[in-house]
Amino acid sequence: MTVLLLKLAGPLQAWGSSSRFARRGTEIAPTKSGVIGMLAAAKGIRRTEPLTDLLGLEFGVRLDQPGQILRDFQTARSLDGRHSAPLTYRFYLSDAIFLAAVQGDAALIHDLAGALKRPCYPLYLGRRSCPPAGPVSLGVEDIGLDDALKTWPWQATDRYRRGAPRIVQLEVIRDARPGDQDTETHPDEPVSFDPAHRQHTWRSVLRRHVPVTNDLAESSGVIDHDPLSLLGG
């Protein structure tokens, strides 16, 4: 299988799958609908156009640097000051970095990789106020999505990695497959981004952890964290 790898990093990110009205939240990791929307923007697909080719993509993400939740409180008034808009809360992820993988037909994956290098519309990390900090595409690999998220080097910053042990367990969230156990569902499978009848269906996901080597641990003198060793485990 062919996989497109993405580095999703920026000062702020916001990935909401169920935000409504005056409270706009964020998930702890990029949503499939948000990333598919970004790929559609790169290809120049308008919101009113069908997502035909993108609906069959398999998606997974690794939480390389989870970041922190940031709350933004917003107020607004009309120019003459006579009317106030509803007070709103918007939540963001600050200082977060994710490794995302999209798997599909080889021709489509290469086409998406090319589109990310020269996007038709501006790219953003879930919300228009959240541009990426650098190039999004890490390239194309002819391996499976699971292997890509397990073997690709840790994308966290040097400062973050220097404070971590030699082996870290990173959480992975990917599309569930037939036979997977302990899955959960979210309203995160995009069908249409048309503002007149925006549609999502339920998406089943599987959460697990993968071990990743931290090549900066030895230089920082961090000792591996293994509390079970004190119990003889």
From TrEMBL:
One of its GO terms (biological process) is maintenance of CRISPR repeat elements. GO terms for molecular function: RNA binding. Residues 175-189 have a biased composition (Basic and acidic residues). The keyword Transmembrane does not apply. Keywords: Antiviral defense. Residues 175-197 are annotated as: Disordered. This is CRISPR-associated Cas5e family protein. It comes from Paractinoplanes brasiliensis.
